[in-house]
Amino acid sequence: MSAIALGIHGGCGVMPREEMDEAGWAAARVDLARALRAGWGVLRGGGSAVSAVEAAVMVMEDSPHFNAGRGAALNIDGEPMLDAAIMDGATLAAGAVSAVGRTRNPVRLARALMDAGESVMLTGPAADRFAETHGLPVVDPDWFITDRQRAALARMKARRAAGATATEAEKHGTVGAVALDADGHLAAATSTGGFTNKPAGRVGDSPIIGAGTYARDGACAASGTGAGEFFIRHVVGHEIASRMRYLGEDVATAASRIVFEDLAPYRIGAGLVAIDGAGCVVTPYNTAGMFRGWITAEGRMHVATHDEVFVVEA
Amino acid sequence: MSAIALGIHGGCGVMPREEMDEAGWAAARVDLARALRAGWGVLRGGGSAVSAVEAAVMVMEDSPHFNAGRGAALNIDGEPMLDAAIMDGATLAAGAVSAVGRTRNPVRLARALMDAGESVMLTGPAADRFAETHGLPVVDPDWFITDRQRAALARMKARRAAGATATEAEKHGTVGAVALDADGHLAAATSTGGFTNKPAGRVGDSPIIGAGTYARDGACAASGTGAGEFFIRHVVGHEIASRMRYLGEDVATAASRIVFEDLAPYRIGAGLVAIDGAGCVVTPYNTAGMFRGWITAEGRMHVATHDEVFVVEA
After folding, report:
1. How many Cβ atoms are within 10 Å of B89's Cβ, its own excluded?
2. Contact B200/A129, CB-based, under 8 Å?
3. Inter-residue contact A191 to A174 (CB < 8 Å)
4. What is the C-alpha to C-alpha distance for residues A236 and A262, in angstroms, rounded to an integer?
5. Element (H, E) at A203
6. Within 10 Å of residue B46's Cβ, how many Cβ atoms?
7. Which of B86, B88, B114, B123 is the mutation pick for testing A, counting most A CBs within 10 A?
8. Strands (DSSP E) along chain B, which ranges?
9. Considering only CB atoms, which chain A residues are within 8 Å of B203?
10. d(Cα A40, Cα A56) in Å, to the nearest integer?
11. More confidently predicted of B235 and B313
C-alpha cells in the first residue's frame, strides 16, 4: 500500500482581488474543496489515480467558477471550444480531445478515448460524436455559457476594437489534477476552454500529451495552466519528468526550474501542479494567484487562491 | 559557418517489395531525391533550416508517392484529413495543424502559423481558413485523392467487413525532414494523412510538438513515422533531446534507444529521422523498409527504401 495524495489547480492569472468580492473567492474555494473531496473519495476507496483525477476535474468542469466545461472562456466566435486530456502513469496510456463543443465533461471523453485503446487524440465534431456513441452526456453549447464569460468576451472585443491587447488576467485559466493511488500509480488530467476571444480552431497545451498533461510512474504527474503556446514549445510535463529521471532532480526543483527559469524570458503567466511517487505535491506559479488545492497522506486538505492557504475539513 | 546537413523520411512500414514493381520503387526514390535537392538548395543558398525542411516536405506533399498532401491516406469517411508541424530549434518556435482538409501544403500552413507568432496549433476548418487569409493555396479535397489511396481504403473496408484488422503496411506512412543550416540552427517538419480508414477526427503524433516533430539547438531535430499513438505516449522527439541533453547520449544512441527499446514492447512499426548539431543524420526504423534520404556536408546524396542505399547526384 502506497501513501495516497492528490493535487489540483483551477487556473492561474493576475486574478486581482477586487475582481470578485470575498464571497466570490470563498465560493471558488468551496468548489476547489468539492473537487478535492471527489478525487479523495476515489483514492480512499482504493480507486485508481486515473479515476481520481477524472473525478476531481469533472467537479471543476461542472462548476461555473473555472475556465473549463460550464463557465469556459468563449472563443472569437462566441463559442465554447474545449480541450482536455488524461494520462495513466502506470501504462503511459492517454486520451486527449481538442475543439470539443457539445460533450458536457471533456475529461470523461478523454478517459473514454483512453479506455477504448485505439486513438489517443480526437478533434472537432468527431470527438463529440465519439462521446455520443459511448453514452456520455452531450449538451447544447449554450449549456457551457455563463453570463460572466459572455461579459468577458464583450469586454475583450471592445478593448481589442480600441486597440488594446489582452491582459494576462484574461488569458489564463484551466483546471487540472494529479494523483498518486494506493497501488503507487500516478495520473494527470487537464481541461480548459482556452482563453477569452481565442482564435477559432486554436488548440492549447492542455490536450498535448507531454506539454500540459503528462504522467509517468517513477517520475511525476503534471498538469499546467498559463500561456499554453509556451508550454507546448517547452514540452513542460515531459521536461519535468526528464529532469527527474535523468538529472535526479526532485519534483519541486524540476517544476520550479520550468516555471521560474525556462519560461521566465517570455514574461508570460505560468503555473502547474505536479506530484511525485512519494505523494509530494507542488504548485509553483509566477502570477498573482492560482486556484489550487491538495490533500496529502494524513488527509489534511488545503485550498488557496492567492498567498494564504486555507486548511479545511477533508 | 557550420556544416550543413539534411535528412528526410517518406514513411516506414512493411512495404512488401512486390507491392510495387521496381519502376515504382525507383519513382519514389526519384521524388525523395527531388525533396532532398529542394531542401539542399535552400541550405546551400544560406537559407534557414526551417525553410529547408519546409521545402523538402512540400515536395513530398505534392508527390503522390507518399502519405501526405496529394496521395494522403483517406479516413473512414473517405476524406483526406491532414496533420503537419514545423519547429525552429533556434527559438523553439513552432506551428502545428490538425484535421486540415483543403490546404494544399499543410507544412506551409504550419510555417505560416509559426511565423504569425500567436497560436502554435490550429485544428479543423479554422486552420484551412487561416491558410486562405494568409494567401496560401487551397484546393478542393479531391485534389488530394489518388486512385491508389481510394483502392487502399476500399481494400481496408472490405477486410474490416470480413473481420480482419489492418496490416502494419497499411497503417504507416508520413513524411518529414530535419536540417542543420549554415548558422548552426536545427529544424524539423512533418506532414501526414495518418493511416487508411483512420477514425474521423483522429490526430496522430505528427502535429504534436515533442512527439512526432521536435527541434532544439544544442540537442537534435527529429521527425517520426509509425504508429503515432505510441509516439505521443512516449513523447519521442523530446525524449531523444532529453537523453542527449541530460544523459550525454549521442543522437544515434538516443534515437535507437527509442525505436528499438522503448517502443519495442508494443510490436508496432516505428521509424524516424534525427540530426544533431554536427550534422550527423540517423534514420533508425524497425520495419522492413522506410523511404529515406540524406545529404551530408560533403554534398553526397543518399536515398533508400529498403536495405540498399543508393548514392545519387546532388
Report:
1. 28
2. yes
3. yes
4. 9
5. strand A202-203
6. 11
7. B123
8. 5-13, 82-88, 93-100, 121-123, 175-180, 186-192, 202-203, 213-215, 220-226, 270-276, 281-282, 289-295, 301-304, 309-312
9. 98, 119, 121-123
10. 8
11. B235
* DSSP state for residue B260 in the 8-state scheme: I
CA distances from A33 to A42, A49, A50 (A): 14, 18, 19
Q: Do B209 and A235 meet the contact criterion of CB atoms below 8 Å apart?
A: yes
Which residues of chain B have a CB within 8 Å of the CB of A124? 99, 123-124, 201
Residues in B touching A222 (Cβ below 8 Å):
none
Report how far residue B212's alpha carbon sits from residue A274's, in angstroms, rounded to the nearest whole number.
Answer: 25
Answer whether 0.90 is exceeded by the pTM: yes
Supply φ then ψ for residue A7, to 5 degrees: -135, 145
Distance between CA B273 and CA B290 in Å, rounded? Answer: 10
Quote the minimal CA–CA distance from A165 to chain B in Å.
Answer: 12
Distance set, CA A222 to CA A85, A110, A190, B254, B279 (Å)? 12, 16, 9, 24, 34
What does the alpha-carbon distance between residue A50 and residue A48 come to, in Å, rounded to a whole number? 5
Catalytic site residues of A? 174
Q: Tens digits of per-residue pLDDT, A249-305?
A: 999 999 999 999 999 999 999 999 999 999 999 999 999 999 999 998 788 999 999
Give the Cα separation of A293 and A29 in Å (integer). 9
Closest by CA to B273, choosing from B50, B45, B46, B53, is B53
- In chain B, % helix, strand, coil (3-state, to 5) comes to 35, 25, 35
Chain A hits for B210, Cβ within 8 Å: 208, 210-211, 232, 235, 238
Chains A, B: CB contacts within 8 A come to 135
Residues of B tagged active-site: 174
Structural contact between residues B100 and B203, judged by C-beta atoms closer than 8 angstroms: no
B239: distance to nearest CA of chain A, Å?
Answer: 8
Chain B residues within 8 Å of chain A (Cβ atoms): 92-94, 96, 98-99, 118-127, 129-130, 198-204, 208-211, 214, 228-229, 232-235, 238-239, 242-243, 246-247
Q: For residue A210, list chain B residues with Cβ-Cβ distance below 8 A.
A: 208, 210-211, 232, 235, 238
Helix (H, G, I), strand (E, B) or coil at A178: strand
Nearest to A237 by CA among A257, A213, A260: A213
User: Which domains can be identified in chain A, with CATH numbers?
Assistant: 5-312 (3.60.20.30)
| Nearest-neighbour CA in chain A from B213: distance (Å) | 11
Residue type, A301: M
A120–B201 C-beta distance less than 8 A = no
pLDDT of B11-28, one tens digit each? 988 777 777 788 888 999
Q: What is the length of chain B?
A: 314
b/e burial code for range B267-281 (CB count within 10 A of at least 16 → b): ebbbbbbbbbbebbb
Chain A: residue whose CA lies nearest to B126: A201
Q: What is the ipTM of this complex?
A: 0.96
Give how far A74 is from chain B: nearest CA, Å: 15
pLDDT per residue as tens digits for the range A193-220? 999 999 999 999 999 999 999 999 999 9
CA atoms of A229 and B308, how far apart (whole Å): 42
**Strands B175-180 and B186-192, bridge-based pairing:** antiparallel
